[in-house]
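User: When convenient, might I ask for sequence and structure tokens for a protein?

AI:
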Amino acid sequence: MIDVLTGFAIIFVVIGAGYVLAQRGVIGAGEQRLMFNRVAYWVASPALLFTTVATSDASTFISPVVVVVFIATAITMVVFWVISRLFFQADVPTRMAGAASASYFNSVNIGLPIAIYVIGDAAYMPPVLLMQMVIVSPIVIAGLTADPTSPGSRGRNVWEAVKSGLTAPVVVAPLLGLVFASMEWTLPDPVMAPLEILAGASIPMILMSFGASLRGGAVLSPGPDRPATITASILKLMVMPAIAWVIGALAGLEGSALYAAVILSALPTAQNVYNYTANFRAGETVARDTVFITTFLSLPAMVVIALLFGKGI
């Protein structure tokens, strides 16, 4: 349990550092803060994703648990999209930010200790991370970069958005990592060591920028983004785990495998979602507030799930 709390503590302390630095003017607003996100998006996060996947056991990448989590992710995204179309006034990028916030979960700095100390098996995390980055991220990035008002045919605009998603560095990097893991290739230390140094900068930069973004803007402040944020938070913490439970049971999962699928689905919204929205300047408020809310409330949600499964944390 202490390791799970440590994972949460890391997030809150680094976010707090970013907030304090913004309050003191060390991290400026606008372009100064966004530089953290851009460096993370273009360099540090790809390095983290490549080194994580490339050094993983490729035999663990195909798992019924991962399939169930992916289906739950897809269904949750669609549910948010339908609700948004029916009830919220939002453009495509903002709607995609909400759909991602409702379904894209933190699989690294919270997910890893959860997998080890709550589920009892860290082998789920690399394939889940790969699934999110290679399948879900291109869809999210394509939605965030979609611009219906741009000149040109609708087909061309859709293609440009899809191309942006497929060629994003955070998508290409884990794909390259998968090739290295599958072929059992290893990079020499003079190449791998610099990548690991860059990888170590990814999470702190994203979290500090996130903390800085809280300065001057209260979570769930009145405005058009509040209903979308509340909806995304409920979907992430309650609906997505329930969907995973139903899909897993129908797929024949039981015991620890079903428990793992439900717990993974209850993880909080990933900071990557905020990083994407900040990088493309679309849906930042929805992503920021949903990350904040679900990070605070995911631990109680997982305690409830553990009790329902007859387990203790």
